[in-house]
């Protein structure tokens, strides 16, 4: 099997998996875990898009 | 006049048998450290997450690192991969994860494999903290 994902899709999947683990392991109650996981995912995506724009600015 | 005693006493968490067993089981089988402590939902979610991430890494033709190739980056990759427990050993035995250097996605796959292992180590530590009562 050869899965060909774009860099963006791969980064989104990476963010999702990491956020799930961070949420469950870093907080105690299910509500806190869900909120923290969501927050981590949002930060990952923000960093991804922000990093992309930063590289675009450096290039131009 | 005596110094006022601190109200918050330092709480200790003595090591018990489960505190040793849970992280080892959790390392070998992702999520199992939580499952043996009857944290069913957490354990199953962690098991699914780590396993799917590792499977994505393999499907993207990522490289499963060998212990000692002489390259420091490979050795660090090996440490990360090893964190995935039985997934790493099964991959090595079955000859999966040879890596395809001609594909950009293979590099993403290698990172998925390493990070799946590192996340599993976090899960194993969490299982230990639950076992000793530091975390509910």
Offer a few descriptive terms:
A: mainly alpha, 83% helix, B: mainly alpha, 6 helices, 62% helix, 0% strand, elongated
Q: How would you explain this protein's 3D organization?
A:
The complex is a heterodimer of chains A (60) and B (136). Chain A has two helices and no strands. Chain A is an all-alpha fold. Chain A has one domain (10-59). In chain A, helix 1 (7-26) packs antiparallel against helix 2 (30-59). The longest helix of chain A is centred in the C-terminal third of the chain and has 30 residues, at 30-59. Chain A starts with 6 loop residues before the first helix and ends with a helix. The relative contact order of chain A is 0.13. Chain B is an all-alpha fold and 136 residues long. Chain B has one domain. Chain B is built from six helices and no strands. The termini of chain B are far apart. The mean pLDDT of chain B is 92. Classes of the chains: A mainly alpha (60), B mainly alpha (136). The interface between A and B is medium-sized, with 18 and 29 residues.
- The averaged pLDDT of chain A comes out at 96
Mean pLDDT of chain B: 92
Shape of chain A: flat
Q: Largest interface here, residues on each chain?
A: A-B, 18 and 29 residues
Q: Radius of gyration of chain A, Cα only, in angstroms?
A: 14 Å
What is the straight-line distance between the termini of chain A?
38 Å
Instruction: Tell me which oligomeric state these chains represent.
Output: heterodimer
The number of domains of chain A is: 1
Strand content of chain B: under 5%
Which percent range fits the helix content of chain A? Answer: over 70%
Largest sheet of chain A: none
The helix count of chain A comes to 2
Topology, number of strands of chain B: 0
Q: Using DSSP, what is the number of strands of chain A? A: 0
- State the helix count of chain B: 6
What profile does the largest beta sheet of chain B have? none
Work out the strand percent of chain A: under 5%
Q: What's the alpha carbon Rg of chain B, rounded to whole Å? A: 19 Å
